[in-house]
Design a protein that fits this description.
alpha+beta; Ubiquitin-like (UB roll); 3 domains; binds iron/sulfur cluster; binds FE2/S2 (inorganic) cluster
């Protein structure tokens, strides 16, 4: 590791590693500098020229994304000179940019919009009719739409397919006004991580077909959560919105940076898993196909527990929160019941890859292992209590606690999904991570822990 040295930025001294990138220091210290093409996962490309700073001793401004820190450097990130340079570069970036903000999905989280407000605010020297026109909705594949007019040619998307997925579907063709992003001839954007280019794009050129025109971003509320798509435990944001009188709805999952787990990215399957989470929910208790009230369901469950008390098996889904699994174990102990969590159903070798996706499709499997829960199929029992395990089990009687509707005999009680509850999960590498509660339903569905309290009364 290289030595730590002192440099000065805007009259303040910083200790930093000799030879490290100046832009990383500016980002870390939240020193405002505009940039499009640099991204910590992709490195420097030096094409947008927005990240200019003044370095004492250098005649001209330099780009921070390609400047390596040396001892004694004195940097200025603000001031009339450097701000004029940024305004001029921004004007160039905007020459052919369409006036789309009112209908653009990126509005509200667009770097170009923010920089224009901060460094631009200039009147355009050319009229709207003189702007060079390109295609406005190109379906690139994998749920990604491209508006070539909005593109600032930062090459983040093309570098993602070159350096991260190594699938090389995207490139920039043409020169000057005619330069544009496109797919390679005869190819579509097609890899399991393709939708990350939407997050990488600093403007509204790449949008998600799934999210386009669904919501204005300023109406969304965001919580921190963990994807339940596999045992990797990628960190996500859940963006949701509750429109007056209607139910709270999730509109998208986005990757949340965690260098120990998923870096900057998530897979498309995990990103889109919010749909299954909301669809086909079990919302009322059911007895042999007929709807019953929650109170009737709890009474029936108590009756079955009393009737079969000699031979009960409790089955646990390995996607439940640790707090729920521990509460179920305590309840099972009081019932003197056997406990298991059959594991084969979670194994999916076709899902695994070398990047993030794991063949183990259970988000909290590590906790099942840590608590020494039997992972074999249950023996014959006269009563099975199934806490959302994906398999159906045969027994004289079955009580299911389920998030989603499925054809199951016996008694089924609805339970809150992970987005409607908070708790922790331990991923396959042993990191214990917390999920916040995102969704507040008009008629809340009880959590497993609430059901257990009622069953004990
Ligand atoms: S589409 Fe977006 S990410 Fe790709 S080059 Fe254009 S602005 Fe950059
Ligand atoms: S790799 Fe697994 S945890 Fe990560 S986003 Fe995909 S499904 Fe979710
Ligand atoms: S971020 Fe430095 S040139 Fe684009």
């Amino acid at each position: 590791m290289s030595e730590m040295i002192d440099i000065i930025v805007d009259s303040q001294s910083y200790k930093v590693q000799n030879g490290s990138l100046l832009i990383d220091l500016l980002i870390k210290e939240k020193i405002k500098v505009p940039y499009f093409c640099y991204h910590e996962s992709l490195g420097a490309d030096g094409n947008c020229r927005m990240c200019m700073v003044e370095i004492e001793g250098q005649k001209r401004p330099q780009i921070a994304c390609d400047t390596f820190i040396k001892p004694g450097m004195i940097i200025r990130s603000k001031g009339e000179n450097i701000e004029k340079v940024r305004t001029d570069i921004l004007e160039l970036e905007l020459i052919n940019h369409p006036v789309d903000c009112p209908i653009c999905d990126q509005a509200g989280e667009c770097s170009l919009q923010e920089f224009y407000m901060e460094y631009g605010l200039h009147d355009s020297k050319i009229s709207i009719s003189e702007k060079v026109k390109h295609s406005k909705h190109l379906d690139l594949g994998s749920n990604v739409m491209l508006d070539q007019e909005r593109c600032v040619l930062c090459a983040r998307c093309t570098r993602f397919t070159d350096k991260i997925t190594y699938t090389h579907e995207l490139g920039i063709i043409g020169r000057g006004d005619e330069a544009k992003v496109t797919t390679m001839p005869g190819r579509k954007l097609d890899n399991p991580y393709a939708m990350n280019v939407v997050d990488l794009c600093p403007v509204g050129a790449l949008t998600s077909k799934d999210f386009r025109f669904a919501q204005r971003v300023w109406f969304l509320q965001t919580v921190d959560s963990i994807c339940h798509g596999c045992a990797k435990g990628c960190n996500i944001y859940i963006d949701h919105n509750k429109i007056k009188y209607q139910d709270d709805v999730i509109y998208r999952f986005r990757p949340r940076r965690n260098d120990n787990v998923n870096g900057f990215f998530i897979c498309d399957a995990g990103r889109l898993s919010y749909k299954q989470l909301q669809e086909n929910r079990l919302e009322s208790a059911i007895l042999n196909g007929e709807k019953i009230t929650q109170m009737q369901a709890i009474a029936k469950a108590k009756e079955l527990l009393a009737k079969h008390k000699e031979n009960i098996t409790v089955v646990i889904d390995a996607n439940l929160y640790t707090e729920e699994i521990e509460a179920i174990l305590a309840f099972a102990k009081e019932l003197n019941a056997k406990v298991c969590s059959p594991k084969e159903v979670y194994r999916d070798e076709s899902f695994k890859d070398d990047m993030l996706r794991s063949s183990n499709r259970a988000a909290n499997y590590k906790t099942i292992e840590r608590l020494n829960i039997d992972t074999k199929e249950p023996d014959s029992s006269s009563l099975i209590l199934n806490f959302n395990h994906p398999q159906d089990f045969e027994a004289t009687s079955v009580i299911n606690f389920l998030t989603h509707n499925r054809l199951s005999l016996g008694l089924s009680l609805p339970i809150a999904a992970y987005s409607e509850n908070e708790g922790t999960l331990t991923n396959e590498d042993g990191f214990t991570q917390k999920c916040e509660k995102a969704i507040f339903k008009n008629v809340p569905i009880p959590t497993i822990i609430e059901h257990l309290i009622r069953l004990r009364r």
